[in-house]
Amino acid sequence: QVQLAESGGGSVQAGDSLRLSCVASGGTISNLGMGWFRQAPGKERELVATITWSGTSTSYSDSVKGRFTISRDNAENAVYLQMNSLKPEDTAVYSCAARRRTEYVVWGQGTRVTVSS
């Protein structure tokens, strides 16, 4: 079954940018919707961005809209999250997930993002 692996996290200053990558192995994600989630210490997991299988439709949470951009490259079996104008409140572990119909069924293990003021 398909597995997902995130990379690109790190420690940055407020206002900086990061680009997260999620690469699939063991199967294709070209026919699956994809999402990025984040979870900060002591908080619930939050869905921050989604993209359809074709890449023609995207959505964002209010907290990241205008700053983050989700994209995908099905030829590379990958999905990306471009994060600009980072804020300390963006600090969290970010995970990608694959969706079949309405349910996210495959998850990566996450990559940590720390934003300092």
Features:
117 residues, mainly beta, seven-stranded mixed beta sheet, four-stranded antiparallel beta sheet, 0% helix, 56% strand
Helical run tally: 0
Q: pLDDT average, as an integer?
A: 96
Q: Please give the radius of gyration in angstroms.
A: 13 Å
**Poorly predicted spans:** none
Characterize the structure shown.
The chain is an all-beta fold. It is built from no helices and eleven strands. The strands form two sheets. Strands 2, 4, 5, 6, 9, 10 and 11 form a seven-stranded mixed β-sheet that branches. A hairpin with a 6-residue loop joins strand 5 and strand 6 (58-60). The termini are far apart.
Spell out the blueprint of helices and strands:
Elements: E1 3-7, E2 10-13, E3 18-25, E4 33-39, E5 46-51, E6 58-60, E7 68-73, E8 78-83, E9 92-100, E10 103-107, E11 111-116
Parallel strand pairs: 2-11
Antiparallel strand pairs: 1-3, 3-8, 4-5, 4-9, 5-6, 7-8, 9-10, 9-11
Question: What's the short version?
Answer:
With 117 residues, this protein is mainly β.
